[in-house]
Amino acid sequence: MHPAPIFSWDDRSGMLSFVAERSFATLAATIEGRIVVAHAPMIVDGDRCLLHLSRANPLGRAMPVRVTAIVHGPDAYVSPDWYAASDQVPTWNYVAVEIEGELAPIDDQALRAIVDQLSAEHEGRIDGKPPWTSEKMTPEVLSAKLRGIVGATLSIDVLRGTRKLSQNKDATDQAGVIAALAGGPDAGARAIAALMSQGRPTT
Predict the structure, then answer these.
(1) What are the Cα distances from residue 9, in Å, to 19, 69, 160, 162, 194?
(2) pLDDT (0 to 100) of residue 1
(3) What are the CA-CA distances from residue 189 to residues 103, 148, 196, 198 (Å)?
(4) pTM score of the predicted model
């Protein structure tokens, strides 16, 4: 996470809601002296996350193993030209959460429940179509697909967050960044502008 305290995100409930909304993480661990990375969909379940990995993934084969999971939010480049103040440098605004914990295997019945829960959550976010469910698959094909993945739990032992949203700039400079990002073509930049605008005092 960013070392500057002004960008620290300490709201546990807010961070967990963010993880649940994004629902996708990059996991990293050191296995036999090598850094191994995986990417996986996740569900927040109390003090843990539920997820699945390819059975061939080195992280899956190494369980139980300590990992750091990184959940990325929107991000955007910030040009010094958007500040009223002079002698500034480029930077990047972003939102991210890190989870440290133990990645541990679960049984096949729990894996099926994770797959069903994940698909129900994300099918529910799609407008205009009946949701897909695993019941649409033949049992033989579903069983074969499930054999290719492993289910896991990730304990939420440490939770850290960063919301780097130009808090170190004055209101005039912040307003310049918001205007530039909000009017651009990039969806991530517009999302950063919206986050910057939330709770910002009017001037």
Answers:
(1) 13, 16, 7, 5, 17
(2) 80
(3) 33, 37, 11, 15
(4) 0.92
> 28 near 66, Cβ under 8 Å?
no
Angle between helices 139-146 and 108-123 (to 10 degrees): 100
CB 75 within 8 A of CB 94: yes
Closest CA to 27 of 75, 74, 60: 60
Confirm if 74 and 121 have CB atoms less than 8 A apart: no
Per residue in 158-197, pLDDT (tens digit) is 999 999 999 999 999 999 999 999 999 999 999 999 999 9
The DSSP symbol for 83 reads: -
Q: Where are the beta strands (DSSP E) in the chain?
A: 8-9, 24-31, 34-45, 48-54, 65-78, 91-105, 149-155, 158-164
Q: In terms of C-beta distances under 8 Å and separation of at least 24 residues, what long-range contacts does 32-39 make, across chains too?
A: 36/62
Q: Kindly give, in sequence order, each residue whose CB lies less than 8 Å from that of residue 146, ignoring residues fewer than 6 positions away.
A: 108, 111, 112, 115
Structure tokens at 115: 């797959």
Q: How many residues does the chain have?
A: 203
